[in-house]
Amino acid sequence: MATLALILYGVYLVLAFGLRTLIQLRRTGSTGFHGLGGRPGSAEWIAGVGFTVALLVGAAAPVLALLDVVEPIPALDTTAAPVAGLLLAVAGIGLTFYAQVAMGASWRIGVDPAERTQLVTSGPFALVRNPIFAAMLPTALGRRVAGAVARPGYPTTAGGNAEPERVPDPELAERPKRRRFSAEYKLQILREADACAKQGEIGALLRREGLYSSHLSTWRAQREAGGLKELSRRRGRKPADPLAAENAELRHRAERAEAELAKARKVIEVQGNVSALLEDLLGTEGAEESTER
Predict the structure, then answer these.
(1) Residues 15 and 98: beta-carbon distance below 8 Å
(2) If you count DSSP H runs as helices and E runs as strands, how many of each does the chain have, helices first?
(3) Which of 6, 147, 151, 227 would you call most buried, defined as having the most Cβ atoms within 10 angstroms of its Cβ?
(4) Which of these, 148, 210, 158, lies nearest to 182 by C-alpha position?
(5) Residue 37 carries which DSSP code?
(6) Looking at the predicted structure, is the pLDDT value of residue 172 above 70?
């Protein structure tokens, strides 16, 4: 985060310039500062101006990020980036201060052609010709990585509402909860992000929702692939088609009519059989009476 990068830069300035200057002043009676050396346009003068500009830019970068003038780097906008940047910056700050102390009384900022100091060849100077500037490189890189992520806002729910403050149980260690985002929420945030036209509006949106720019990149890819559209559909049974329901009702009526017709046919058939049996019985009795007479 930009705040972390600014804090690291403040610690770096206090140690590399403030504390080291105080040590030099107590040892030699001189601060070791010579300012810009050489005539304007010379190599010494350009180096001094470049060093001063670098210090100002180093302070301006996290300040601009805090003011939402610059956006975080998407490739570095991960949860591991601040940790890696912090470790790298702390190691670089420590190595820078160690190399400065190893110079002893020969430590200077700026060049005075008339001054002669002892050449330091021990300690880190036995490995690197200029270990101070070599250690400044991981310091600057670590601060940049630590400040490359968006500043998360206060904890929010998936819908964007603030969570109620809870009093933690002192006897139980709370486990971090993984936030879950619905497809509707992702589409809403993407629509708001797409509508951001002014500089810094996306950063304000991310802070408000407690999100990272990597969320936007992932959700945009899901939207382009059509995944969010499919997930945004409501689960459960699909609404019934009126035409299909009407056809089903007609089929049911036809089946019921066929069943009733089959029953009627059976009744008629039984009635016909009974009638034929009665006719046979009546015909037999009439023949017997004729024979007896």
Answers:
(1) no
(2) 10, 0
(3) 147
(4) 158
(5) -
(6) no
93-108: pLDDT as tens digits: 889 888 888 888 877 7
Q: Do 8 and 89 reside in the same domain of the chain?
A: yes
- Beta-carbon contacts of 219 under 8 Å, excluding residues fewer than 6 positions away, are 186, 189, 190, 228
**Nearest-CA neighbor of 86 among 2, 8, 6, 3?**
8
Q: How confident is the model at residue 163 (pLDDT cuts 50, 70, 90)?
A: very low
Into how many domains does the chain fold?
A: 3
Same domain, 47 and 135: yes
Whole-prediction pTM: 0.48
173-215, pLDDT tens digit by residue?
556 567 788 888 999 999 999 999 888 888 899 889 988 888 8
202: Cβ contacts below 8 Å, ≥ 6 apart: 71, 193, 196, 213, 216
Total residues belonging to the chain: 293
Query: Do 199 and 99 fall into the same domain?
Result: no
Give me the domain span that covers residue 275.
Answer: 257-293
Q: Which of 132, 107, 129 is nearest to 118 (CA)?
A: 107
In single-letter form, the type of residue at position 40 comes to: P
Q: 65 near 207, Cβ under 8 Å?
A: no
In angstroms, the CA 105 to CA 24 distance is 7
Which residues partner with 156 through β-bridges?
A: 162
Residues 11 and 61 in one domain: yes
Between CA 215 and CA 192 the distance in angstroms is: 13
Q: Tell me: do 37 and 140 sit in the same domain.
A: yes
